[in-house]
Amino acid sequence: MKLKSGSSQTLPLSASESATTEKLLSHDHKELDMILAELDQAFDGMNTERSFELLDLFWGRLAVHIRAENVFLFPALMKAAERTQDSTSTKDTVTGQEIHKLLTQLREDHNFFMIELTTAIKKIRILRQENRSEGLEEIRNGIAPVLRRLEAHNALEESRVYRQAELLMDHSEQSMLDQSIQTDLENLPLRLRDPSFAIRAQSKNRK
Prior knowledge:
About 70% of the residues lie in helices and about 0% in strands. The protein is mainly alpha-helical. Helix 1 (about 20-45) runs antiparallel to helix 4 (about 135-160) and helix 2 runs antiparallel to helix 3 (about 95-130).
């Protein structure tokens, strides 16, 4: 079972684009999709070593992404939504009650992703230690439902959640949040700084 369709290539944020929270996190989704495309190829080739490296990279990068949302984005959105006076949402904005419901759902997703992917990492590490490829397809099929849920999760964030930072916060709050998100996403552990995916570093150097 294929994990995800799509290209293994993505473009860095251009030098002319401002690094807003929405753009940073949406772009990080694209980078994660690129890793999944490479992982699919490794599974196709029954390459246990590369499959382990890429699944571990994906798990680690997703953990960093989730950390940025849980620690910075979600609390900031909750605080901003609670002080709004509007009792009804529009096609763009949401009320405090609605944002609370959305963020609760997203946090539950985050916990699910980490638990399921950690289990997959443990399984593929055993295959790697035993230097065998039998069982790779089982692992691939096992994480496919997780990644389908992640796809829906990302779509919800991009269509309904990320834009709230601009709609609910003033310029100063937005700037502080943008900087916090960018710094956190770039604060990758050394083992996750795979040169094949150093897109953000390339983008930063162009500025």
